[in-house]
């Protein structure tokens, strides 16, 4: 994949560098300085384009704009999410470059030619299971009190998420959670185009679990409904694609609470609507009856999550 990143952008860099220098360090395609710089800038720019395009399409065409009036939505949250994401990207790209550089030098198991179409489902499944497991444990590790406050808390600033929350991380947090995807192709063979598609799909999935569109209340697939609980209550649903490791690790929480067939987010949505129309006369949070304005009851959800937080 690194060779494509360089090859298709070489003409742009050739033209730009030839305007300002004659040094082979920047003009030669074999120069490590040029390769490292080009990889870094490409990762930064393409990462930003993918993030802004994916999150913006979601935000303007699918995201419920009413969510912006939610009492737990922060002032200027969308702007702050975009700022943190774009601020982090260049740093994330710096530490990501070695993965691409050593891939270019032939250390990965990526390959160009497919021998059989059966290699696709096998590699997809392997990539999916491998990253699902490691992202779970890395994410859970980031909730350890020794690192949580400086590393992962920035992402938990957002109690109610928007599509732009997806990459709104500390740069090392975003990098840490992307490492399993990079590591996979150093351990297992994968067809290059499939890796590229999987990598983009991973980014889009990240956006989708923050977009407030609860398309699934599936028991196996980890959706936005589950990740919403993670942002509100901290100690549940650390997974990325499936609920498997949350179940094994004892951190699974179903989006269905006390009421059969009634989803947690639906309760929040109703309470939000009630707030917009005045006061609610009763709120059921965590099975306890509470009375008062919606802001109070939803704050109680977050407060209970805070009380319950014990790192692991
Ligand atoms: Zn988290
Ligand atoms: Zn999140």
UniProtKB/TrEMBL annotation:
Keywords: Membrane, Transmembrane, Transmembrane helix. GO terms for cellular component: membrane. It comes from the Eukaryota. One of its GO terms (biological process) is lipid biosynthetic process. It holds the Pfam family FA_hydroxylase. Residues 125-250 form the Fatty acid hydroxylase domain. It is found in: Membrane. One of its GO terms (molecular function) is iron ion binding. The chain crosses the membrane at residues 35-61, 82-102, 122-139. Its main location: membrane. This is Fatty acid hydroxylase domain-containing protein.
């Amino acid at each position: 994949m690194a060779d494509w990143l360089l090859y298709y952008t070489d003409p742009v860099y050739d033209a730009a560098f030839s305007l300002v220098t004659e040094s082979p360090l920047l003009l030669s395609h074999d120069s490590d300085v040029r390769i490292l710089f080009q990889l870094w800038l490409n990762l930064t720019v393409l990462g930003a384009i993918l993030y802004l395009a994916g999150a913006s399409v979601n935000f303007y065409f699918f995201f419920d704009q009413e969510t912006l009036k939610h009492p737990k939505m922060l002032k200027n949250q969308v702007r702050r999410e975009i700022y943190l994401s774009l601020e982090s990207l260049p740093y994330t790209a710096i530490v990501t470059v070695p993965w691409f550089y050593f891939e270019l030098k032939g250390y990965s198991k990526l390959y160009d030619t497919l021998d059989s179409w059966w290699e696709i489902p096998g590699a997809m499944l392997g990539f999916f299971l491998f990253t699902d497991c490691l992202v779970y444990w890395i994410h859970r590790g980031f909730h350890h009190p020794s690192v949580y406050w400086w590393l992962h808390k920035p992402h938990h600033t957002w109690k109610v998420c928007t599509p732009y929350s997806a990459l709104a991380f500390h740069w090392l947090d975003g990098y840490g959670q992307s490492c399993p995807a990079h590591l996979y192709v150093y351990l297992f063979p994968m067809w290059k185009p499939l890796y590229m598609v999987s990598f983009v799909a991973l980014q889009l999935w990240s956006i989708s679990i923050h977009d407030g569109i609860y398309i699934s209340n599936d028991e196996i697939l980890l959706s936005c409904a589950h990740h919403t609980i993670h942002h509100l209550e901290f100690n549940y649903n650390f997974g990325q694609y499936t609920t498997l490791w949350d179940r094994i690790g004892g951190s699974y929480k179903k989006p269905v609470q006390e009421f059969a067939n009634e989803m947690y987010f639906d309760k929040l949505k109703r309470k939000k609507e009630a707030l917009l129309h005045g006061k609610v006369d009763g709120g059921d949070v965590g099975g306890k009856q509470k009375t008062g304005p919606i802001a109070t009851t939803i704050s109680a959800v977050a407060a209970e999550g805070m009380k319950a937080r014990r790192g692991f």
